[in-house]
């Protein structure tokens, strides 16, 4: 099943995607969501929103050896984790805002794990049971701020810095798929999930040892090499093989209005 969150003329709603058509759904995502069979429109006729509304956005840094090395960083001995604020989450087609206080903005294409049931102290062998599905994500980073701060909250936490979408696939096999970042038609990042330093079951066990994850929470699993900066006017597309494409345009932050 492909779960979408969409909007037409009313409030946001949940739906199920079938052959390019959004069908209205009832129930709770990752709990008892089911299609009503009533078509709402094609994906081009509705506005697709971020397909999750996470309480926790957990990210894994330097989880591809080649990405760590391209920035001259040590490959971590344990997962390098950080959080993004839920306010950073946007959906397909939304604008990524380039902050006026930053001089370098980098996109980072990632496979996103979506939690399907409450998860605490989950063994690696049981990890697949708590994952509700998968989607595409973009860990937008103000690289200069990340480096100058010495920790990553601000550089990775601006509003609009976590595009997610376009849908959540609940029957997807993520073990060896291509993860790409394309900017204005140029493929920059191109990796495969089989090269993750810390694989998905290990991540689930490691993370749930210290925090409880709830349905709809997300884990951005890491980004491959090829990270390069973007500018206002560029369009970033994250592609995860078999999951679709997530595109967002970069726009300059407007100057603050005087009172």
From TrEMBL:
- Record flagged with keyword Hydrolase: yes
Q: Where is the Fumarylacetoacetase-like C-terminal domain?
A: 56-251
* Enzyme's top EC category: hydrolase
Give the highest taxon in the source lineage: Bacteria
Domain Rv2993c-like N-terminal spans what residues? 1-51
Q: Where does the record place a coiled coil? A: none
Q: Which GO terms describe its molecular function?
A: hydrolase activity
Q: Which UniProt key words apply to this protein?
A: Hydrolase, Metal-binding
The protein, known as: Fumarylacetoacetate hydrolase family protein
What organism, scientifically named, is this protein from?
Answer: Pseudonocardia yunnanensis
């Amino acid at each position: 099943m492909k779960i979408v969150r969409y909007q037409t003329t009313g409030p946001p709603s949940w739906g199920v995607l079938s052959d390019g058509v959004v069908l209205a759904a009832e129930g709770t995502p990752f709990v008892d969501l089911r299609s009503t069979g009533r078509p709402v429109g094609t994906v081009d006729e509705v506005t697709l929103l971020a397909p999750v509304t996470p309480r926790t956005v957990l990210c894994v840094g330097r989880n591809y050896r080649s990405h760590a090395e391209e920035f001259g960083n040590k490959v971590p001995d344990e997962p390098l984790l950080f959080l993004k604020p839920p306010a950073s989450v946007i959906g397909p087609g939304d604008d990524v805002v380039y902050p006026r206080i930053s001089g370098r903005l980098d996109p980072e294409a990632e496979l996103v794990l979506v939690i399907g049931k409450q998860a605490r102290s989950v063994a690696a062998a049981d990890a697949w049971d708590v994952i509700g599905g998968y989607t595409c994500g973009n860990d937008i980073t103000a690289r200069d701020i990340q480096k100058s701060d010495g920790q990553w909250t601000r550089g990775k936490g601006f509003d609009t810095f976590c595009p997610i979408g376009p849908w959540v696939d609940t029957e997807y096999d993520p073990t060896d798929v291509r993860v790409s970042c394309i900017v204005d038609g140029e493929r920059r990042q191109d990796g495969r999930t089989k090269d993750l330093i810390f694989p998905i079951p290990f991540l689930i066990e490691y993370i749930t040892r210290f925090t409880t994850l709830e349905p709809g929470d997300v884990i951005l699993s890491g980004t491959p090499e090829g990270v390069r900066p973007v500018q206002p006017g560029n369009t970033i597309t994250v592609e995860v093989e078999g999951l679709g494409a997530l595109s967002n345009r970069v726009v300059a932050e407007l100057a603050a209005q005087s009172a």
